[in-house]
Specification:
heterodimer; A: Rossmann fold; Rossmann fold; 33% helix; B: mainly alpha; ABC transporter involved in vitamin B12 uptake, BtuC; two-stranded antiparallel sheet; two-stranded antiparallel ribbon; globular
Chain lengths: 514, 424
């Protein structure tokens, strides 16, 4: 053990019944570096992090983990012990109590108490304020978590981890819900922490972030370690090749766009903000989509993209202004069922909350919006239902040994395919995809892209909301950019469409008038 | 030849080993419940020197649990949608006194005035009565159903459309309808009621008719099994071994035959309320498994938002569930009045608690999304068996309540444990 390394992982192998999640992993993390950990879903990153955070006790795996010159030896599940040792993990899911304040959350479980045994609120909040000021986080210490945006909540989680005297900070996809500017804030904080000597392990699916922030990268694939390399010796293509084990000539499947007639036309869509009385979260947005076309919707978080598409689906503001017409005929859309009758289908942003009944089978999830297909007068034709749902699941290559398994046993990518399956079975004219590839691995992403191309080839119009600019540029025929509820431009995806150009529109620096 | 057969069997076992284990794991809840029931029966059989197993006692046992079973059948959809109904006991009692009031105070005078010729004594389906008596019973049932429907519409619309939590609405109903019982009855016991109404609670199906029914039911079970196999083959998948389907049909048939031949016909015959319960069970089993409405109940219990975004009117589903519950309360009210022979102020007391307990013991999750009506009937049988067995042993009500409370907690404990094991 050299003192340079804060963490040494030596020949770690972890087996679950039937699967080897990690096989013979060894790498070192140097003191004071930001170490990127990269791999597809299922590569073993989460398992490795669970070993570090004390979820898996030391006798449940082979090999050894040396942290800060001492071997980790957790007897049983020892999350609290790991925190005391100085290992802090910021999980992908936000782990805050929404109804409590920032201070209460930061000190949850270790509230300072006075001599009478009651909570010393004064100390709690002054400590909180100190922590927030130290990292220059502009968050009021007594604000309720539920009143903060996702980005600020993420920063609170990090502040909480830092306040626990962490020696190593592990960030598991910290930016998946953040806007560009929030990501900037996070990166600044991480750089400052690095300068102060803090070590970070950074896990993400966004490759650009590795180049932006990490010093070293470890790439994993299928439970094995591919390599640990200095980040500056890498590029996108090399990383992807290492992750998936094959050279990807292109990250987006080629598409030949032959858009047909206009299928959906929205005029002057204006949606009042549900909370702020004098603000519109969507303000006079007009656009159209053609048959077989992919319209990308770009914008920063809070620009009103999700609000716009859920309004088209009849599930946001019920009293919005403007008209929606399908095939030239104005349709009244005021609920999900009326939108589906009009031929609009939505793959929602949060598949677990809005897309799936997690405890139910793939079959029941796919058939849920399609019951009218299978329902006869007094019964469901369950044979027909099984047959057709099975065909659809196969077509979308949902990986499962039977469509009777509950969807909560599937990986994120496969769950997303189930949501798409249930939507396309309704044979929509317009398919809205809200962040279709969030939190899923590269391989599944690619399959979803190919599926989008198949659908457009069949004449379906697609509206795709995405926070990832490369995805918007890689897949769209035209791009609608939003900024603070307004449409700042609809541009064709030609050589002039670049990330920089979209960013100038999304930040409102430039506004195009059509 | 024999070598071939052993080889075949070995192959079959080899191929199906995983599948059998899987199916046991998937149906763990159902099996533990049935095993628990059988163990309780054996225990009481031994403790009571076989008195427990006499047809007379088993018939009584079934009679005691029948109202709870009917209510539990309606309560399963309520709980599966993530709601609760605390008012069922009060509503049953309320409808029961209304039925008794109508029969005792209102219909006799009106009918005697309207149809004096129909006052003469006759027999109707083996019951001593008059034509006006039959009419009075018929009208009482209509009144009960209307009241049950109105209660369901009232509570259902408050819960589904005005979004007042079901716990609060039905807690209000619990208190309100308890008050209603006293208002209608004036604190008195009302009765006796007509013989025809009594027979709905106390009557029996003639033994020969019961036998014919049993044979018909068994024939139906096998016919349906074979028909659904044929339908499956049409689509060319799911080739279950025939033996498995036949075995399943055989088990259900033997339960039917055991009840009819031993329990019912060994005593006085099939009880009318049991027949009613079985019909309701079949209807609700069918609704929950084979209709769109049933699918929506489970989907919205699992994830209401996702169900709504799938274009389903979730409010309407919840509303309908409470309307059905109201109608079942009405039927129970009628049967209760018939069984007691009069309307009492304590009718239906504590039914809501035993009903919810039956659902939970029968595998319904209070978190919503999970549960089966047949399971709830088995749950009601478990509660009924405990009551009955402890009655024979001469245990006091106080002891019985303690035991029942512990059993309820134990059932949920086992469920939670089995789920935890399934996950890790």
């Amino acid at each position: 053990m050299t003192d340079d390394n804060i963490l040494e992982i030596r020949n770690v192998t972890k087996k679950f019944p039937g699967v080897t999640a990690l096989s013979n992993i060894s790498f070192n993390v140097k003191r004071g570096e930001i170490h990127g950990l990269c791999g597809e879903n299922g590569a073993g990153k989460s398992t490795l992090m669970k070993i570090l955070s004390g979820v898996h006790p030391s006798d449940s795996y082979e090999g050894e983990v040396i942290f800060d010159n001492e071997q980790l030896n957790f007897q049983s599940t020892a999350i609290k012990e790991a925190i005391e040792r100085g290992i802090a993990i910021v999980y992908q899911e936000l782990v805050l109590v929404p109804e409590m304040t920032v201070g209460e959350n930061i000190f949850l479980g270790r509230e300072p108490i006075n001599s009478k045994g009651a909570i010393n609120w004064h100390k709690l909040y002054s400590e909180t304020d100190k922590i927030l000021k130290r990292y220059n986080l502009k968050i009021p210490f007594a604000a309720k978590i539920s009143s903060l945006g996702v980005g600020k909540q993420q920063l609170v989680v990090i502040a909480k981890a830092l306040s626990e005297n962490a020696k190593i900070l592990i960030l598991d996809e910290p930016t998946s819900a953040l806007t560009e500017s929030e990501v900037d804030v996070l990166m600044e904080i991480l750089e400052r922490l690095r300068n102060e000597g803090m070590t970070c392990i950074y896990i993400t699916h966004k490759l650009d972030e590795f180049f932006r922030i990490t010093d070293t990268m470890t790439i994993m694939r299928d439970g094995t370690l591919v390599d640990t390399v200095r980040t500056k010796d890498l590029n996108h293509e090399k990383i992807i090749a290492m992750m998936v084990g094959r050279e990807m000539t292109e990250r987006y499947p080629a598409r030949e766009a032959t858009p047909g007639d206009v299928v959906l036309e929205a005029r002057g869509i204006t949606v009042p903000d549900p909370v702020l009385p004098h603000k519109n979260c969507v303000d006079n947005v007009s656009f159209s989509v053609r048959r077989g076309e992919i319209l990308g919707v770009a914008g920063l978080m809070g620009a009103g993209r999700t609000e716009l598409v859920t309004t088209l689906f009849g599930e946001y503001g019920k009293n919005f202004e403007g008209t929606i017409s399908i095939d030239g005929e104005t349709v009244g859309i005021h609920s999900a069922s009326s939108a589906m009758n009009a031929g609009i289908s939505l793959v929602p942003e949060d598949r677990k909350l809005h897309g799936l009944v997690l405890m139910q089978s793939i079959l029941k999830n796919i058939s849920l919006p399609n019951m009218n297909k299978f329902a006869e007068r007094f019964s469901i034709n369950q044979n027909k239902e099984f047959y057709e749902c099975n065909e659809t699941a196969k077509k979308l290559s949902v990986k499962c040994h039977s469509i009777h398994v509950p969807v909560n046993t599937l990986s994120g990518g496969n769950q997303q395919k189930v949501v798409i399956a249930k939507c396309i079975m309704t044979a929509p004219k317009v398919l809205i995809l809200d962040e279709p590839t969030r939190g899923i691995d590269v391989g599944a992403k690619y399959e979803i892209y190919k599926l989008m191309n198949t659908l457009t080839a069949q004449g379906v119009a697609i509206i795709m909301v995405s926070s990832e600019l490369p995805e918007v540029l890689g897949m769209s025929d035209r791009i609608l950019v939003m900024h603070e509820g307004k449409c700042t431009g609809i541009i064709p995806n030609d050589e002039n469409a670049t990330q920089e150009r979209i960013m100038t529109l999304a930040t409102g620096v430039e506004v195009l008038h059509s | 030849m024999t070598a071939n057969i052993t080889e075949l069997i070995q192959n079959f076992v080899q191929e199906n080993k995983g599948k059998i284990a899987d199916s046991i794991r998937a149906n763990f809840r159902t099996y533990t419940m049935i095993i628990a029931l059988v163990l309780i029966w054996i225990l009481f059989g031994i403790l009571t020197d076989g008195v427990f197993f006499t047809p007379r006692n088993l018939s009584n046992l079934v009679r005691q649990m029948i109202l709870i079973a009917i209510l539990a059948i309606g309560m399963v959809p309520v709980i599966v949608t993530g709601n609760i109904d605390l008012s069922v006991g009060s509503v049953v009692g309320f409808i029961s006194v209304i039925v008794a009031y109508c029969q005792f105070f209102i219909f006799p005078d009106i009918l005697a005035g309207a149809f004096p010729a129909w006052q003469a004594q006759t027999t109707f389906m083996g019951v001593e009565t008059s034509m006006n008596g039959v009419l009075s019973t018929f009208l009482s049932i209509i009144v009960a159903l209307i009241v049950g429907l109105v209660v369901g519409l009232w509570q259902g619309s408050l819960i589904a459309y005005l979004r007042i939590p079901a716990f609060i609405v039905t807690l209000g109903g619990y208190l309100g309808f308890k008050g209603g019982i006293l208002l209608v009855s004036g604190g008195r016991t009302i009765g006796p009621v007509e013989n025809t109404l009594k027979s709905l609670g106390q009557g029996y199906v003639p033994k020969t008719l019961g036998l014919i029914l049993a044979i018909l039911v068994v024939a139906c079970i096998f016919a349906i099994t074979l028909y659904s196999r044929k339908q499956k083959f049409k689509y060319g998948f799911e080739k279950y071994p025939l033996s498995k389907d036949i075995f399943k049909a055989g088990v259900i048939s033997s339960v039917v035959l055991f009840y009819v031949l031993y329990v019912a016909n060994g005593y006085e015959g099939i009880q009318i309320p049991v027949l009613l319960m079985v019909i309701i069970l079949l209807i609700f089993h069918y609704i929950t498994n084979n209709t769109k409405f049933g699918r929506y109940i489970y989907a919205l219990g699992g994830n209401q938002e996702a169900t709504r975004l799938s274009g389903i009117n979730t409010q309407k589903v919840v509303f309908k569930v409470f309307v059905l519950m109201g109608i079942l309360c009405a039927l129970c009210g009628v049967v209760l009045t018939g069984y007691v022979g009069m309307g009492t102020t304590t009718g239906g007391a504590y039914y809501e608690l035993f009903t919810i307990a039956a659902c939970v013991i029968g595998g319904t999750s209070l978190m919503g999304g999970e549960g089966a009506v047949a399971g709830a009937v088995v749950g009601a049988l478990v509660i009924g068996s405990l009551n009955n067995g402890m009655d024979i042993l001469g245990w006091t009500t106080s002891k019985q309540w303690v035991v029942q409370g512990l059993v309820l907690i134990l059932a949920v404990f086992v469920d939670v444990q089995s789920k935890r094991k399934g996950k890790s």
